[in-house]
């Protein structure tokens, strides 16, 4: 496929008039990258509403629903660090304060050849834009056959408990918000590289920490987060409408993959 054909195909998925990610050297393209960087510096998150066109959003939500029986469900307890829980520790130590996370994931190798998710993720212009927006010198698509880009389904009661990400950034596309719950909440820079701020973490877990931010959940929004130092969660979904989003994974290394154990953990198989 020629570059022009790729751009034409991508423009049916991504609103390139509003977000000219294929023309980053134009005045509007430069302003877009500057806006993302400023937004990430200001509050650790950047949201681009209307990034995915409404018809593509609808088709992607329908794809997730159609493939729901192939999704891998995880339901686990963990602490905010995703580290082993010590056998003995003070009760108010965040290491021993267990969080609950459950969701269903549709792996990358189940995403259709003409899926809007595949068209967007495999388009070099999107990768290049995200690398610039996140200000990464090295930025590559994930070569993992399962985890490169996935569709996530949160049914009633599903949630992501409070956690710090292990990777420095996350990229998601909201496809279908829940009618109630399923909100992304966070505390910007609750810890720092040189200060774990355990007191602040405990206060947040006990709903006593000021400065909690809730992000809008508009379908079609592209979100960039820096979740390594910002404690965050997705609140439990309430009601029959499932929360559906896509998670796009990247690496600072080319051809990077999960190990077999991690694939098994998130997708119930290896590939
Ligand atoms: O689903 C979301 O909006 C956030 C996902 C997240 O925090 C994660 O995957 O670590
Ligand atoms: Fe996260």
Key phrases:
271 residues, 7 helices, alpha+beta, binds 2-oxoglutaric acid, four-stranded antiparallel beta sheet, seven-stranded antiparallel beta sheet, 26% helix, binds fe (ii) ion, Jelly Rolls
Strand and helix map with partners:
Elements: H1 3-11, H2 27-43, E1 45-48, H3 54-66, E2 72-78, E3 99-106, H4 116-121, H5 124-133, E4 140-141, E5 149-154, E6 160-163, E7 170-176, E8 184-187, H6 198-205, E9 212-214, E10 222-225, E11 231-234, E12 243-248, E13 250-251, H7 260-267
Antiparallel strand pairs: 1-10, 2-3, 3-5, 4-13, 5-12, 6-11, 7-10, 7-12, 8-9, 8-11
The site of 2-oxoglutaric acid has 10 residues, from β7, β11 and β12.
Protein name: Fe2OG dioxygenase domain-containing protein
Domain Fe2OG dioxygenase: 132-254
Family: Belongs to the iron/ascorbate-dependent oxidoreductase family.
